[in-house]
Amino acid sequence: MTEQTKVCSKCGEEKPLSEFHRDASKKDHHASQCKICRRGYAKSERGRKLQAKYQKSEKGKRARAKYQKSEKFKKTQAKYQKTEKYKKVQAKYKRSERGKKAQAKYQKTERGRKIRAEYKKTEKGKKTMAKARAKYAKSEKGKKAVVEWRKSEKSKKGKVERNEGPAPFDTYAQRIEYAEEVRSHPTETNVLRAKCTYCGKWHNPTVLAVANRISALIGRGRGENRLYCSDNCKKECPIYQQMKWPKGFKKATSREVQPQLRQMVFKRDDWLCQRCHSNTSLHCHHITGVEQNPIESADIDNCITFCKKCHKWVHTLKGCRYIDLQREKCKETFETPRKELQVLLET
Q1: 208 close to 166: Cβ distance less than 8 angstroms
Q2: By the 8 A CB rule, do 233 and 192 touch?
Q3: Please, which residues have CB within 8 angstroms of residue 169's CB and are 6 or more apart in sequence?
Q4: DSSP string across 120-157
Q5: Are strands 192-195 and 202-203 parallel, antiparallel or unpaired?
Q6: At what angle do helices 97-108 and 110-121 cross, to 10 degrees?
Q7: Contact of 281 with 275, CB cutoff 8 Å
Q8: Helices 84-95 and 97-108, packing angle to 10 deg
Q9: Are residues 200 and 226 in the same domain?
Q10: Which pLDDT value is given to residue 194?
Q11: Which of 268, 265, 269, 270 has the alpha carbon at shortest distance from 286?
Q12: Which domain, by its residues, includes 143?
């Protein structure tokens, strides 16, 4: 049985019907142009315009929706998605503004959120998210975002809630009571209270301060991280941020006094300067110098509470100046051997 043929209206060649697309509108149910000529026509400007017009029409939309549901379309699409051409087109689209907008819009939808949440739970999702975070943190945009976040009020609120709140008694009392004097708050039972290292006042230390003190006691943190009731006590404490042999030694206005003696004197004087009645930057002053009278150096009656300013003023008075105290020390060191020599010579 011979196959039927037909003459192409464009190229004029006689070809079998298999070389023509089917068209129900024609008498023989085949297009007037062959497939080769039709492809060339589709690539031309006129062909593209007609194709675009057809795709916008209702008939074209129906035909497209019907074709997309077919198995043939799914197979061709899966095959095309594996090609390098598709990957390049997809990457180019994602980089474009239109693609970014579409992606952002899709991620805000419920479906997009669900898919993203499910993907994050998978091992592949965790790895990709970790890589993306590390890459973003190293980038300039990521660094700027971190700086802006730290300056924002939202981050400060989070830090206040976590670190600057009062330390709970049940959590930290047993871990720190062997090194610090602690007790629970009289009204709020689950709030930790501790004694200040410098002035001996009871205060409510923060979670961060207690955690740093515990890490220092274990040997993890740097320094001792003592507990202080205020920043003034930190500044005035002679052992705060001091090493055994510091390179840049800071000049202190007062020598180191026994902590127990200092706290007893402050408590007796009600944590007030006895000259100006200030309650900040308090110092324990020896009325008679330690080197001049070492026996009474730990006597509470030989001490008085002054603020930093008044302590400086006391040491400007005649007889209490640093130079006067040094002269008395020099006299003692040189006069005693002279007296002994005179006694020996006389005998």
Answers
A1: no
A2: no
A3: 182, 184, 185, 189, 190, 191, 192
A4: HHSHHHHHHHHHHHHHHHHSHHHHHHHHHHHHSHHHHH
A5: antiparallel
A6: 90
A7: no
A8: 80
A9: yes
A10: 92
A11: 265
A12: 109-151
Residue 117 included in any domain: yes
Structural tokens at position 161:
């809630």
Q: List the structure tokens of 85.
A: 């051409």
Q: Is residue 15 part of a domain?
A: no
For residue range 101-130, what is the model confidence (pLDDT) as tens digits? 988 888 889 988 888 888 888 888 888 888
Question: Looking at the domain assignment, is residue 104 inside a domain?
Answer: no
Q: Return d(Cα 311, Cα 67) in angstroms, integer.
A: 94
Higher-scoring residue by pLDDT: 248, 30: 30
For residue 347, the SS3 value is: coil
Report which of 265, 343, 264 is spatially closest to residue 311, judged by C-alpha positions: 265
Domain-located, residue 37: no
What phi and psi, each to the nearest 5 degrees, are found at residue 302?
A: -90, 5
Question: Cβ neighbours of residue 197 under 8 Å, at least 6 residues apart?
Answer: 226, 227, 228, 233, 237, 239, 259
Q: Can you spell out the DSSP letters for 8-34?
A: -TTT--EEEGGGEEE-TTSTTSEEEEE
Q: What is the pLDDT of residues 159-183, one digit of tens each?
A: 555 567 888 888 888 888 888 899 9
Spatial separation of the C-alpha atoms in residues 170 and 237, rounded to whole Å: 29
CA distance 3 to 17: 8
Residues 182/202, Cβ–Cβ less than 8 Å: no
Residues 176 and 216 in one domain: yes
Q: How many structural domains comprise the chain?
A: 3
Domain check: are 217 and 267 in the same one? no
Q: Which of 70-79, 103-112, 156-165, 286-295 has the lowest mean pLDDT?
A: 156-165
At 193 the pLDDT is 92
Q: Cα torsion at 13, 18, 20, 23 (round to 10°)? A: 140
> Could you identify the residue written with the tokens 């949440």?
117
